[in-house]
């Protein structure tokens, strides 16, 4: 890249799931500007205010570029060789002394947005052979994976809303106008939601908050946090009672679907009305409107997943889509057909029988729920975690009972963090290994193309050069993996090929053997009846070279019906697995109906803001400018009840912790519910985030309770946490 002239590059924003195309102007190693890429066929020029945070991250003086080692209270730069040797020897030594499980691993969200980390990180984690693996999945989408694994045979085969063709979009616990969509890669979601209404369709939002998305919808219903499971049971009840189901198309794949009736018989709309806060007549209307639409989709996200019955709720949402004939139908829930499809080669998600050592929480896909991480560090005995590897995560801010985890991390014998910031979590590390930032590395979206609302493919090359001693995540992981294998006396012969292939070589293989590639068929699990099949079409015969030659990306057409190919079970059927899921109805009954009726406690939920990204872009001055956003929202009625006025300082207490926060009175939130955004609390001693420290906010996960989990999955309960309020005088 020339040093003097301005150059334009076409890249992808990797901050959220929307995969917006960006046009980045550079001069030498300087990033001049970031704009929306108008020629990107998928995002068509759309970006949100966060895109510019990529530049701020690149320019951030607080960002580490070389490895550092802790020396007392200070950090000392060391060479990569020394850092890798130190980390590998330490981890190996701890495993020799305490067994393989003595080393724990926590993987954070940005790994999913990082081609190198997702493809080559596993070499390192596998070399450690530890059972003590954790990730942000269990404060997020774990229920989706379990459902997809059981129903469709693969944990990542998750159907997504065909937003561009639906006539009725019911959103339960998602706020795509703030989050830009999740498990639905959807740049410019606002335009697409308005599109539904323009073509005469309807957007319905079920949320304890009248969110930005609710404001734009046609219909919004407040729901008592954590009671979605009752709403869904009643919606299914209405389907059967009024015989509104439509199972003809899907019955061949789900032969026992009509048995659902038996499980929902006792859940009339009248029965659940008080607990959910939604009138019986409205529940019936929700179902009839949905069934009258030509194509409809019911979509549940964070709000529906991270709650006491998250797995059962998401399962019932899937059943509702199946029973109304909307799975695998244009305008319904559809399976994406990505160009580089890792599913056939990646693990399906082991259902295993492992349970966590201390509390017996279930493992899924080789990971335990992060809600039990602290106790695995704090409780002595065989298998106790003595050292942690943190890869692109900040669990001290993002996981339940954060203060307990903070204390647990302080007791470790060793921690290594792969991160470019000294955060609330990495400040506990002995060594920090900083990778380059997003615009300094090549990118192909391995994960989020799979959940995109159109079939699409795009490869972006790094837009700026780096120094020879700056490394990417994959180089860090491969270096460590090779050393750990060597220390264990295992063969390292295969590493040479990996170093030369690189993640981009893997992407090339996947493209060529994939649905739109010339070597298609090797393991491809799908149909391709779109016009991409035609000789001469840009989308035909995809290779890495072809994608590089089309830097705005290549559109591969709208989502296509893909049953039975999308099913990974050998019999090509959907396994509804009633025994596993419906058994949880006993817990629903016990929770909602067996207890003596008493007043419902005040409960806490979370929220996102367009200028946040979980815990980590608050060091960009542009992202934190303006009024304090880390407030506790509460309804005016609750303001009166607790004697709290707008702007008052309030003490909020839960079973596990307490904090003080500014109150914001708003009727956008349901009475009996308070909302605090997550990702804040940048006031810990030892962090090096000079801007974020000026706008610290408070960490809501001081209040969330590690003992409160969705028992079926072990997923954390971050919504619906009982709290008490007290005005600070
Ligand atoms: N109360 C409450 N808590 C929540 C949520 C909520 O809604 N409410 N949401 C949950 C959800 S959905 C999620 S996904 C989790 C996220 O939880 P985490 O993944 O634990 O946290 P992040 O804030 O994403 O932290 C990412 C870290 O990775 C670093 N990083 C960024 N990019 C890279 C990279 O390319 N490579 C490397 N090596 N490091 C990088 C950042 O500096 C940061 O320190 O939070 C969860 N926590
Ligand atoms: N700007 C921004 N964008 C992001 C992120 C970010 O931090 N900031 N994080 C990214 C990540 S990691 C993820 S996973 C996605 C998440 O994306 P979304 O799933 O859209 O998550 P939220 O925006 O938190 O919206 C969740 C909604 O659920 C509601 N809710 C809370 N409890 C309940 C309940 O019990 N029932 C119902 N029905 N609703 C409830 C909340 O009021 C909120 O409106 O966003 C991604 N995009
Ligand atoms: S919506 Fe914003 S953060 Fe998400 S990919 Fe697009 S520009 Fe980036
Ligand atoms: Mo997430």
From TrEMBL:
<dbReference type="GO" id="GO:0051536">
    <property type="term" value="F:iron-sulfur cluster binding"/>
</dbReference>
<dbReference type="Pfam" id="PF01568">
    <property type="entry name" value="Molydop_binding"/>
</dbReference>
<dbReference type="InterPro" id="IPR050612">
    <property type="entry name" value="Prok_Mopterin_Oxidored"/>
</dbReference>
<feature type="domain" description="4Fe-4S Mo/W bis-MGD-type">
    <location>
        <begin position="6"/>
        <end position="62"/>
    </location>
</feature>
<dbReference type="InterPro" id="IPR006963">
    <property type="entry name" value="Mopterin_OxRdtase_4Fe-4S_dom"/>
</dbReference>
<dbReference type="InterPro" id="IPR006656">
    <property type="entry name" value="Mopterin_OxRdtase"/>
</dbReference>
<protein>
    <submittedName>
        <fullName>Dehydrogenase</fullName>
    </submittedName>
</protein>
<dbReference type="InterPro" id="IPR006657">
    <property type="entry name" value="MoPterin_dinucl-bd_dom"/>
</dbReference>
<keyword id="KW-0408">Iron</keyword>
<keyword id="KW-0479">Metal-binding</keyword>
<dbReference type="InterPro" id="IPR009010">
    <property type="entry name" value="Asp_de-COase-like_dom_sf"/>
</dbReference>
<keyword id="KW-0411">Iron-sulfur</keyword>
<dbReference type="GO" id="GO:0016491">
    <property type="term" value="F:oxidoreductase activity"/>
</dbReference>
<dbReference type="Pfam" id="PF00384">
    <property type="entry name" value="Molybdopterin"/>
</dbReference>
<comment type="similarity">
    <text>Belongs to the prokaryotic molybdopterin-containing oxidoreductase family.</text>
</comment>
<dbReference type="Pfam" id="PF04879">
    <property type="entry name" value="Molybdop_Fe4S4"/>
</dbReference>
<dbReference type="GO" id="GO:0046872">
    <property type="term" value="F:metal ion binding"/>
</dbReference>
<dbReference type="GO" id="GO:0043546">
    <property type="term" value="F:molybdopterin cofactor binding"/>
</dbReference>
